[in-house]
Write a structure and sequence with these properties.
369 residues, alpha/beta, Single alpha-helices involved in coiled-coils or other helix-helix interfaces, Rossmann fold, 7-stranded parallel beta sheet, 7 strands, 53% helix, globular
């Protein structure tokens, strides 16, 4: 009996320590991956004429490729981008450009999605959204998650959503936002919404490239916004108190009365428009018709008194000056003499051998030779 027990135990131990062959799995990586990548590399890049034709026909893929070309910093892409912009320019300028700003958490993305869906379904409007995502100053990366957050609007055929990184530019706008607006207009979008980062930086950049400047505010935001309220409120053409739902309704209505009284204290606008304050709920889809009426009333007024077209002329001049500024900086840092002297003078400044002022002067002189 004992011998049988020992034999059974040895057999169990032997079987327990054996390794099962398991089930064979197919390779996860496509065995033809090299051929796929090679074909992708061989794929012909769309010409300027092809992109232009696609944009004019309202092709969203061509529009996205055109904006990617415009945003590229490669020298060979820049010449093509300028050619594309020149072709699209005569077909632009026929939209209402709306800048939307507000503090983080004010509900900018939620409002844009609800408002965009409302305009498409109720007014049969095509909507282009240029959503600017903040860029990390450490990693230089951006999440670009606005399109994911606007999943209902992004599924609409009449909506185009383009997230772009803000980069190092101030005002919560991407460096090529102006050019992107022109391409969207050429593609036939009568409403272009520009969602800014909204962190209290110089919002003048947004104001200078839009027709209507909408400020979203939270009821009871408190002292954390006092530092930026005055400057932005003076520029805004309309204000919306967000999240007017549930237990927040009373606070939102009180905030509306407070801000409307504050706006009356500001000097009158040169275009005879009195900024309005409304309450909205993106969750309950309330206040959206009032926003559209405010925008329509504004557009009718400023087109009748001529300010709309004067403002567009100013935008063109500002765009030219901005381009000059960008080109000067690019040419300066890519000048051979500056490239050579910059690390030397930077080290001298850090060691205290040169002041920042004299080092800058030397670099400027080097760039002029």
């Amino acid at each position: 009996m004992r011998v049988e027990s020992e034999e059974f135990a040895e057999r169990v131990d032997s079987e327990a320590l054996s390794i099962s062959k398991g089930v064979a799995h197919k390779a996860i990586v496509n065995p033809n991956i090299e051929a796929v990548l090679a074909a992708k590399r061989r794929r012909k890049e769309a010409s300027v004429e092809e992109l232009f034709s696609g944009i004019l026909s309202g092709n969203r893929t061509a529009l996205a490729q055109g904006i990617t070309l415009v945003e590229s910093s490669l020298p060979e892409h820049q010449s093509k981008a300028q050619e594309l912009i020149q072709k699209c320019l005569p077909h632009s300028g026929n939209s209402l450009r709306i800048g939307i700003t507000g503090s983080p958490g004010a509900g900018k993305s939620s409002f844009i999605e609800a408002f965009g869906v409302y305009l498409i379904e109720e007014h049969q409007k095509k909507i282009a959204v240029l959503a600017i995502d903040p860029t990390s100053q450490r990693t230089k990366g951006s999440i670009l998650g606005d399109k994911t957050r606007m999943n209902v609007l992004s599924a609409k055929e009449d909506a185009f959503i383009r997230p772009s990184p803000s980069g190092s530019t101030l005002g919560g706008v991407a460096q090529k936002t102006r050019e992107s607006i022109l391409l969207c207009e050429a593609a036939g979008y009568p409403i272009v919404l520009i969602e800014t980062v909204g962190v209290g930086q110089s919002e003048t950049a947004v104001h200078e490239m839009t027709d209507f400047f909408l400020l979203l505010m939270l009821a009871g935001a408190g002292d954390e916004l006092q530092g930026i309220k005055r400057g932005i409120m003076e520029m805004c053409d309309g204000m919306a108190i967000t999240k007017c739902d549930g237990q927040n309704v009373a606070r939102a209505m009180a905030a509306r009365a407070e801000y409307q009284s504050a706006l009356h204290l500001f000097p009158a606008t040169p275009y005879k428009w009195m900024p309005k304050v409304i309450t909205i709920s993106s969750l309950n889809k309330e206040g959206l018709p009032e926003v559209w009426k405010m925008l329509s009333d504004f557009e009718n007024l400023v087109k009748q008194n001529g300010w709309f077209f004067q403002n567009r002329e100013e935008q063109q001049k500002n765009w030219m000056k901005s381009r000059i500024h960008e080109s000067l900086i690019f040419d300066f840092y890519n000048h051979p003499a500056v490239k050579k002297e910059l690390p030397i003078l930077e080290a001298a400044v850090l060691e205290g051998k040169e002041s920042p002022f004299t080092a800058a002067e030397k670099l400027l002189k080097a760039a002029n030779h």
